[in-house]
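Write out this protein's structure.
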Amino acid sequence: MKLVSLMALLLAASVSAACRGEEDRSPVIAAVDGREIRRAEFEGFLALKVGELSVTTGTLRSRLLDEYIKRRLVLDRAAQAGISVSDEEIEQAAHENPQIKSTAATTAAREQFLNDLLIEKYYQQVLLRDVRVSNEEKQKYIEENLSRLTDRPGFYVREIRVQSREEAERLRNEVTEGRRDFAAVARLHSDAPTAEHGGLTRYEEGQLPAVLEKAINPLRPGDVSAVVESTYGFHIFKLEHRVQPRSPDERRSQYDERRSQLAEELIARKNQQAVDEAIDRLVASADIRIMDSSLGFTYDGQFRQN
């Protein structure tokens, strides 16, 4: 699809969203710094997160409402900072997520796609612009973690994590019976931190909770696990390949590579910490009100006392 066609789709999503904002007469379920959030807009976000489930728990809805409120806070700050995304940035991001180009993609999905780009750009230009890692911090982190990458067996695995068993089973069926690309499904649906990388990460043996590692251990490269539940949600894993400890000669030859990998890992951790702390500050300074009587479910989320 050419850029003009993609832009037309995304522009239509924005216009449609604006029209919905004018016409939406559904109950107000929350207010963030005076900005009303209506039930219909949240239900659209909820549908993207949990698929077409007819039943979701109050706890799950509460967690996702909290996430939606935090996204709204970040988007409002991005607007105040004058953050926008260019046609070229939209096209490049859409190239990495081909599903957004499909006319089958919903207006809500395209709208969320644009919001994701704005949030990421706000993070990079505002929240992370002053994050620095000193040479001393790098060296300490490398010394503490180098043996983790060189001396232990492990595995590369892709993960999809969602918050309901029904959605997890549906997505597993899509990647096994429907032959959909696991990495693409992870990018679109997973709420794990690895989603933007197609769910891919490397673990050492013993690093994961036992219930998750037990699900991965029997897999051969290319296999997809059954749905497994943990305190973090419902997981599906695809084993890419296993890693065996290297010989001393191999470890020496790849020493510089591992040091670089650990330095990047430390930067990623500091970036995530900076984002988490910034969002905590936004939440602490915001006037957030939940209209319990209009929700349609029992709210037990983070902003219950607000």
